[in-house]
Amino acid sequence: MRTYTLTTDQIAEAFERAYSKGYDRSSAVSKTANPDDYKNTQAYHHFRCQDLEPLLFDLGGKR
Questions:
Q1: Which of 1, 13, 39, 47 is deepest in the core (most CB within 10 A)?
Q2: According to the lineage, what is the superkingdom (predicted)?
């Protein structure tokens, strides 16, 4: 498990970017593009598992 040190502004930015990126990806594969359905798509889970850590490092998070 890794530990990150981020400011509250960096945390807010990370959540905004993560939601936007995950939603955009999952909307592309969701048949209904319903915001309530995006968490059930593979694209959303792929984003959470593969892209969140690099996103934190891009914001200047320290391990």
A1: 47
A2: Bacteria
Say which DSSP state 60 is in.
T
Residue 25 to residue 44: CA distance in whole angstroms: 7
Q: Domain range for residue 15?
A: 8-58
Amino acid at 8: T
Residue 47 — very low, low, confident or very high, per pLDDT cuts 50/70/90?
low
- What's the DSSP call for residue 51? T
pTM, full prediction: 0.43
pLDDT value at residue 6: 73
3-state class percentages of the chain: helix first, strand second, coil last, to nearest 5? 70, 5, 25
